[in-house]
Amino acid sequence: MKSLLYKDYLVLRFFLLYFLLFTILLLLTGFIKIHALLPMVSIVALIIPFQLTTSEEKNNSHIFVNSLPVNRNAVVRAKYLFTLLVGALLIGAAKMVDVFFALPSERDFWDLLIAFVGICGFTAVFYPLYYWLGPNFVKIGLFVTFIVTFGVAPMLYNMGVKNNFWGLLEVFESYPSLFWVAVLLAFTGIMLFLSLLLSSWLYRRKDF
Length: 208
Fold this sequence. Notes:
By secondary structure, the protein is mainly alpha-helical. Helix content is about 85%, strand content about 0%.
């Protein structure tokens, strides 16, 4: 497992380094503000699966890996684990910078939770579709992700603000925060577990 995680790190190390340098440059020049770090980092975390799979298809590294005595289930688990670890580190680092330059608030916890749950949900959807549809899904999926992130999501949010989120805020506030935390974590955990099972099954059926 460690060698598989290290392989994925080698694939992404330059991408992550360039992103770090680019982010520092944007902050120093004032093109982005500190509070915009978390949304930007969350979007970059969604690109990680695309980067990993695109590199594999380009270099045929998945063929080399499967020529070794490596369990295919372990290969899939490493992909999930690496994606979630890097995503968690990115959003955690972004929030630490945000908190360092601003007063901590209760919203900080919810920002982190929602960002991480979003990355988990995206990961749970991405990998089964990739192992099912193959490299063509990566091209289409990246385009759809950008459309949803920059087009559909802001539009839905603005509609929700205008309509007071259709009464959902009242429902949310009628239950304690701990209840929603438990619901989100439980739903995310079940979704990831089922996704991992499906991805493992699809990956075992692939021919290399």
